[in-house]
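Section 5: illustrative case.
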């Protein structure tokens, strides 16, 4: 299912979520201004290359490469998909935890995602680019916080499709299972790389879910009555 809206109002503007989207788009526009050779050189010099990380895992350059990698994207479909998921699900994580803990979930998940892929394929010389790992952490957190919230989207069947609403645990749970299946299949490939780094998604999702579970112990959750009011009495503003 391609998610388009979630029935999950927020109490305040998701300033950081929007800021991250803007930064990603601006970086992507800069990428588009480069020629192919310049862009490839930028990816190799400024983003995560697993072989380089394996050789020097604890350096400042490794840290900076990991951060920069979270803002690079490989094409229009890559950035559109990532920003759509961040837009739909990031605002509620920011709303529930506040700006600081939201950033912790986002970036720590991104770092864990990079580490997971490097561990799986430490000798690869193909750059890891994209916000997918950090956003996967947001999805993992959303699944823990809002498992029953309805997500509205389109199910595509060939050239046809239809709109439906499903609970978040089905939408995001299926997404995660798909990443695990594809990740396991990729381990048996004779040559891995150049496509989707599935263990980035897996590592980021698990990290985000764990962090969210920990933060829920210390951040007061809204009472059930307030959650019901937010989710249902204000639901009309989320209708198409």
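Designed sequence:
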């Amino acid at each position: 299912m391609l998610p388009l809206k979630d029935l999950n109002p927020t109490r305040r503007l998701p300033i950081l979520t929007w800021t991250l989207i803007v930064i990603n788009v601006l970086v992507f526009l800069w990428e588009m201004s480069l020629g192919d050779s310049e862009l490839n050189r930028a990816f190799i010099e400024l983003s995560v290359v697993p072989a380089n990380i394996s050789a020097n895992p604890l350096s400042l350059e490794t840290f900076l490469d990991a951060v920069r990698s979270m803002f690079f994207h490989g094409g229009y479909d890559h950035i559109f998909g990532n920003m759509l998921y961040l837009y739909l699900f990031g605002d509620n994580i920011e709303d529930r935890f506040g700006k600081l803990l939201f950033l912790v979930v986002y970036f720590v998940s991104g770092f864990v995602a990079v580490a997971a892929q490097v561990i799986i394929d430490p000798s690869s010389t193909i750059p890891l680019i994209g916000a997918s790992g950090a956003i996967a952490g947001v999805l993992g957190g959303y699944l823990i916080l809002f498992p029953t919230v309805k997500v509205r989207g389109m199910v595509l069947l060939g050239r046809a499709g239809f709109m439906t609403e499903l609970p978040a645990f089905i939408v995001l749970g299926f997404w995660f299972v798909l990443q695990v299946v594809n990740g396991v299949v990729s381990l048996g490939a004779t040559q891995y790389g150049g496509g989707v780094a599935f263990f980035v998604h897996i590592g980021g999702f698990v990290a985000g879910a764990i962090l969210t579970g920990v933060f829920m112990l210390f951040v007061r959750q809204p009472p059930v009555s307030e959650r019901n009011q937010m989710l249902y009495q204000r639901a009309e503003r989320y209708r198409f």
